[in-house]
Design brief:
The chain is α/β, with parallel strands linked by helices and 332 residues long. The protein has helices at residues 10-22, 59-67, 85-91, 103-118, 121-129, 155-166, 180-184, 192-198, 218-223, 241-249, 280-286, 302-322, and strands spanning 2-5, 27-30, 48-51, 72-75, 94-96, 147-151, 170-174, 201-204, 228-232, 253-258, 291-293. It binds 2-OXO-4-methylpentanoic acid. InterPro entries: D-isomer_2_OHA_DH_cat_dom (IPR006139), D-isomer_DH_CS (IPR029753), D-isomer_DH_CS1 (IPR029752), D-isomer_DH_NAD-bd (IPR006140), D-LDH-like (IPR058205), NAD(P)-bd_dom_sf (IPR036291). Belongs to the D-isomer specific 2-hydroxyacid dehydrogenase family.
């Protein structure tokens, strides 16, 4: 059995090698490049493909994969928004993801960034860099005084809720699908409007679908409490960035922590040292003292990366051996 794994970063190599040592009947080939029409040519003769990239998977590359008779694609991440569902279905590809590599990694990061916003650490750091050690005017807010609206109560949302409750925050939650434990705690509200009415902080933990794109748009911001804090560690396009900029300008939004951006693939996980950045929205947002931009790093922990590699390889091997696997993704 032969698996080809694309986009393997240096920090993933040892996890791939460990897995391969434990599966001596499988030949695993490591490719550093991401999947595209050219690199996919290397997959000829393999039984399955493992991949992880934020860039769109090109239809033509998927087509080539299918032409080589490869039906199994195992992603090392959770989001499948960069795969064209109709192409996947047309080719009859079986796709797996890793839905729970470490919800805590993302949840801990989301809460860390929220605390950074509430305690205004970016502003204090900027002042301290100029040897200005005065307290005022950066008086802070306490997490235990906040009402946090958690949108999305899957594994990550649930973990966020636990952490927030540990700090004494009041949590309310919204999701189309109710989780029994969250339900039992009576945290769900019925509408997004109730989140907007009550929350002083809103944190997003839902996938990107056509119907969730720009979930937070100008009308949504308008409906929120003045000075609300926004946390997005999910997907950039959940927020209309122009609308966010206007809401920051008008102080409707008091601060935002963004680990994801609408056009992040232009920048994130790339080195732009000394280079000009052509992404005005990024420049606008990251220049603000009450906005924290990070390069989609919430997931990036030792636990998560190991699980992403091992579980995706397990999934791919299971597909090859049995035609099915845990974590099979259904495309509608
Ligand atoms: C995911 O697992 O889908 C993530 O958000 C991680 C990522 C860097 C794409």
């Amino acid at each position: 059995m032969k698996i080809i794994a694309y986009g393997i970063r240096d920090d993933e190599q040892s996890f791939v090698k460990d897995w391969a040592m434990e599966h001596s009947d499988v030949e695993v080939t490591i490719v550093k490049e991401l999947i595209d029409e050219q690199t996919i040519l290397q997959a000829e003769g393999y039984d399955g493909v493992v991949a992880f990239q934020q860039a769109q998977y090109q239809d033509a590359a998927l087509q080539k994969m299918a032409d080589f008779g490869i039906k199994y694609l195992s992603l090392r991440n959770v989001g499948v928004d960069n795969l064209n569902p109709s192409k996947v279905k047309e080719l009859g590809l079986k796709v797996t993801n890793v839905p729970v590599y470490s919800p805590e990694a993302i949840a801990e990061f989301a809460v860390t960034r929220l605390m950074n916003l509430l305690r205004r650490t970016k502003e204090y750091n900027l002042k301290a860099a100029n040897q200005d050690f005065r307290w005022a005017p950066q008086i802070s807010k306490e997490l235990n005084q906040q009402t946090v609206g958690v949108i999305g109560t899957g594994h990550i949302g649930q973990s966020v809720i636990k952490i927030l409750q540990g700090f004494g925050a009041k949590v309310i939650a919204f999701d189309k699908f109710h989780n029994a434990e969250i339900e039992a705690q009576g945290l769900y509200v019925d509408t997004m409007q109730e989140i907007f009415d009550q929350a002083t902080v809103i944190t997003l933990h839902i996938p990107l679908f056509p119907e969730t794109e720009h979930l937070l748009d100008a009308a949504a911001f308008e409906a929120m409490n003045d000075g609300v804090f926004i946390i997005n560690t999910a997907r950039g396009p959940l927020i209309d960035e122009q609308a966010l900029i206007s809401a920051l300008d008008s102080h409707k939004v008091g601060g935002a922590a963004l680990d994801v951006l609408e056009e992040e693939t232009k920048l994130f996980n790339q080195d732009f040292s000394g280079k000009e950045i052509d992404y005005p929205v990024f420049k606008n947002l990251s220049a603000r003292e009450n906005v924290l931009v990070s390069p989609h790093t919430a997931f990036y922990t030792d636990v998560a990366v190991k699980n992403m590699v091992h579980v995706s390889l397990d999934n791919n091997l299971s597909l090859i051996k049995t035609g099915t696997a845990n974590n099979l993704v259904t495309f509608n």
